[in-house]
Amino acid sequence: MPQATGVTRPGGRTARTRAAVHAATRELLAESADGTVEIAAVAARSGVHVATIYRRWRSAEGLIIDTIVAELSTRAPLPATGDLRADLLVWTTNLLRDVRGPNSLAFLRALTRAGGTGETELIDAAKFLEPRAREIQATLDASGATVLDGTDIVELILSPTYIRALVSAPLDPDTDAPRLVDNVIAVRDHRARAAERGPMLRPNAITSMMGACLNG
């Protein structure tokens, strides 16, 4: 039976091309002083035609993001055991160690450049981040944390991690990882308690009720 268009066969030509391009990108990032790479250089190093790289990744920023996300997913996957605090603590500790390396800053700078070059590039960057986003959601789902979503993890763990790394003041894996994770758990518990009490009245609804009482 012929294979559907766009399906990547494990070990097939598409997989070999992606592996060669990723390897070349990692090597060039290690040699780069500013965390950038040129697609032409990746093509020359990998032996993959430049048109193939542009067709698959569209920009150098997308290529860097995809390469680093794939590396992180292999080297430091998010656990999904059902114990949210333990899973996040393992992942966050590894994350804080990783951001001390040069490739993590290249990742953040690539995201920044993608966001500043236009909507198309930002959409492309989001596409390459999807595997990591699915891992985060799988970890939340395994623990039954329905009151949390990926945005909470971005705001409470990823944002402070990368911002501090970007200003050359990286967080400490031993002391800051537990603190960041405990913030997530505190938000989860607070929302769970609020949900048990029922929906809270919004300020404008409270104002309307007070007005009705006073005028009644």
UniProtKB/TrEMBL annotation:
It comes from Nocardia macrotermitis. The lineage of its organism: Bacteria, Bacillati, Actinomycetota, Actinomycetes, Mycobacteriales. SUPFAM superfamilies: Homeodomain-like, Tetracyclin repressor-like, C-terminal domain. The keyword DNA-binding applies. Keywords: DNA-binding, Transcription, Transcription regulation. InterPro entries: Homeodomain-like_sf, HTH-type_TetR-like_transc_reg, HTH_TetR, Tet_transcr_reg_TetR-rel_C_sf, TetR_C. This is HTH tetR-type domain-containing protein. Gene3D superfamilies: Homeodomain-like, Tetracycline Repressor, domain 2. Residues 15-75 form the HTH tetR-type domain. GO terms for molecular function: DNA-binding transcription factor activity; transcription cis-regulatory region binding. Residues 38-57 bind DNA. Pfam families: TetR_C_11, TetR_N. The keyword Transcription regulation applies.
